[in-house]
Amino acid sequence: MASAALKEGELRFRKLLNEISSVAVQGYGANLETHYWNQASEILYGYTASEAIGRPLTELIIPPEMVAGVKNAVVGMLGSDYPIPTEELPLMRKDGSRIDVISSHAIFRVPGRAPELF
Fold first, then answer.
1. How many whole angstroms separate alpha carbon 63 and alpha carbon 61?
2. Quick check: 21 and 39 in contact, CB under 8 A?
3. Pair type for strands 34-37 and 26-28
């Protein structure tokens, strides 16, 4: 019974992250390499998940003038376990145009594995 409830909860969570078209979510590691890219990210930024996964966010959506600051913020977040503060940022689309987004972050830690950021 508990495992069925757990599986149902996981399916619900996956559907929520994958199919809500107005909430773009990216998962990435400490090196900013993308591990997760939902459908809303595809719509917003213009990259398919297969184009984005495995590439650093700095090659995808982080404008060049923000790269150093983003890297420092990630290091700070990993060192303190406090997420980067939510703020509005001008990020880049695949075509090079800019879009203002509200950026919010979370850390996901599993013992024995490298942390993942969202």
1. 6
2. yes
3. antiparallel
Of 86, 87, 53, 59, the closest CA to residue 71 belongs to: 59
CA–CA distances in Å: residue 23 to residues 38, 67, 69, 109: 9, 23, 24, 22
pLDDT tens, residue order, the chain (118 aa): 778 777 887 778 777 777 787 899 999 999 999 999 999 999 999 999 999 999 999 999 999 999 999 999 999 999 898 888 999 999 999 999 999 999 999 999 989 999 999 9
The domain spans of the chain are 2-117
Helix residue ranges, H only, the chain:
2-19, 39-45, 49-52, 57-60, 67-80
Fold (topology level) of 2-117:
Beta-Lactamase (3.30.450)
